[in-house]
Amino acid sequence: MSGKPLRLGIAGLGTVGVGVIKLLHENAQAIAARAGRSIEVVSVSARSRNRDRGVDLSGLTWHDDPRALAEDPNVDVVLELIGGAEGAARELVEAALLRGRDVVTANKALLALHGARLADMARENGASLLFEASVAGGIPAIKLVREGLAADRLLRVGGILNGTCNYILTAMRESGRGFDEILAEAQALGYAEADPSTDVDGWDAAHKLAILAGLAFGRPVAFNTLHVEGIRSIAACDQAFAQEFGYRIKLLGTARRGEDDAIEAWMRPCMVAQTAPIAAVDGVFNAVITEGAFSGPMLIEGRGAGAGPTASAVVADVIDLSRGTALPVWGTAPRPEISCQPRASLSGEYYLRLLVQDRSGVVAEIAAALRDAGVSLRAMSQHAAEVGTQSGVPLAVITHATQESAMLSVLTALEKLDSVLAEPVLMKIETV
Ligand SMILES: NC(=O)C1=CN([C@@H]2O[C@H](COP(=O)(O)OP(=O)(O)OC[C@H]3O[C@@H](n4cnc5c(N)ncnc54)[C@H](OP(=O)(O)O)[C@@H]3O)[C@@H](O)[C@H]2O)C=CC1
Ligand SMILES: N[C@@H](CCO)C(=O)O
Q1: Coiled-coil stretches, from where to where (predicted)?
Q2: What distance lies between CA 143 and its chain's CA centroid?
Q3: Residue 365 CA to chain centroid, in angstroms?
């Protein structure tokens, strides 16, 4: 074991930052044995200096400005655990990389939006940038794709990448209650943020998918070309229809390699068969799926968030740096960003749910809209009006395989019908 410790500067002392300090303390011996030397925290930064964080910070250098960690001569590795694609987090990471200093981060927004530029900065300055904790918390998703499957030609990556959404969808299904009620419960339990939009509107999961896709296909994807939908529109009746048709609803992300290496990538609520392995991934758990031309399909399930799982991934990156095993950011020499194919080019079976007037001729109007777009029906069901709701009944159809462009035409036609009382809900039926 080397006599010289590896010295860390930690910016951000919230859930993850404090989790890292606790893990380094509680598992110090095993970590030092694996890293080949001891790992020491020497400097820290957060907003509020006086907050009791439940860990002993005495003897550590405190920086009010996290960017000072990039220049602190006693720091070997900077840990960015602040969060956010812009502001202090981005400034710190860029400042550290520009000085050739190695960085470990858990920040998926930063990587998804600025990964291409950060990879260039890391390469140009001989620094490493590691981010295992940014995707699916404690699941070693990045190592799986970048290292374990390095020899394969990946055809698909994705999975369930947001624990808050998976918790909400699971609780809705199990209890029959609506989205708003379960969201409030998730907030009370500390799963969802006070402003839950990053989670429930799909952005957090989409950031993670973009990172996985970048690693799988050896180049960053242009994040603004990903199709992103959240789960706010899912109602109790959708859960009931899903059950009836033999499906479960999951916020699912997929990035798929198409012909000529074009990339299809989306994050959206989907129907998956009740018998599919991913349908059984419930509650706050995440699952990462890969499919390689040589390795075939794979699914890993685990805790995608929380202090312990996330700190475990952060410290694994630190151990890699200590061992000298860090790799290029996207696993290969940097290549330019690639755009995802437009939504209209997708295809598959679809679930379409409407709230419609309960009168003669309505089903014929809807069937005509589907017929005009060349969409064939596989199944249809109508439920009684929910007690206490306004007039209108939920009606759902399952289509045979079709182009998404055809389903978008159907939506346009339905907008013009007086019999359709609310915005339709369209979900892809995904075979995983
Ligand atoms: N929580 C989780 O389960 C997971 C989180 N992540 C990622 O890890 C990162 C950290 O998340 P988490 O620990 O939950 O976040 P928290 O909100 O719990 O902590 C953020 C920390 O950053 C500090 N901070 C905020 N702004 C500044 C600033 N301008 N200057 C200095 N310090 C600042 C805060 O200081 P103060 O405490 O003084 O307010 C706080 O200590 C994020 O990128 C997140 O996406 C990834 C996987 C899972
Ligand atoms: N908010 C995320 C955890 C951080 O990645 C989730 O619910 O999965």
Answers
A1: none
A2: 16
A3: 38
> Above 90 in pLDDT, residue 59?
yes
pLDDT for res 79: 98
Does residue 210 have a pLDDT over 80?
yes
Q: Of the residues 162, 183, 193, 200, which should be mutated to test ligand 2's pocket, given the most ligand atoms within 8 Å of the CB?
A: 162
> Using CA atoms, how far apart are residues 293 and 151, in angstroms rounded to an integer?
10
Q: Whose CA is nearest to atom 2 of ligand 2?
A: 162
In sequence order, what are the residues at sequence separation of 6 or more whose Cβ sits closer than 8 angstroms to the Cβ of residue 230?
165, 197, 200, 201, 202, 203, 251, 269
How far is it, in rounded angstroms, from Cα 212 to Cα 206? Answer: 10
Q: Ligand 1: which of 10, 15, 51 to mutate, judged by most atoms within 8 Å of the beta carbon?
A: 15
Is 250 assigned a catalytic role?
Answer: no
Percentage of residues in the chain with pLDDT exceeding 90?
89
Q: Is 108 annotated for ligand binding?
A: yes
Closest Cα to residue 112, out of 204, 200, 216?
204
Q: How far apart are CA 325 and CA 157, in angstroms?
A: 24
Confidence of residue 332 (pLDDT cuts 50, 70, 90): confident
pTM of the model: 0.96
Backbone angles phi, psi at 296, to 5 degrees: 75, -165
* Stretch 384-405: mean pLDDT: 87
pLDDT tens readout for residues 341-378: 999 999 999 999 999 999 999 999 999 999 999 999 99
Lowest mean pLDDT among 210-224, 239-253, 258-272, 374-388: 374-388
Which pair of structure tokens corresponds to residue 159? 């999975």
d(CA 340, CA 227): 8
User: Minimum-distance ligand to the CA of 310?
Assistant: 1
Separation of 392 CA from ligand 2 center, angstroms? 36
Q: Which ligand is nearest to the CA of 47?
A: 1
What are the chain's domains?
6-134 (3.40.50.720), 152-303 (3.30.360.10), 343-430 (3.30.70.260)
**Whole-number pLDDT of residue 390:** 61
**Side-chain half-sphere exposure of 259, counting CA atoms within 13 A:** 2
3-state secondary structure at position 61 = strand
- The atom number, within ligand 1, closest to the CA of 88 reads 29
Cβ-contact 133, 143 below 8 angstroms? no
**pLDDT over 90 at 273, yes or no:** yes
Query: Count of residues for the chain?
Result: 432
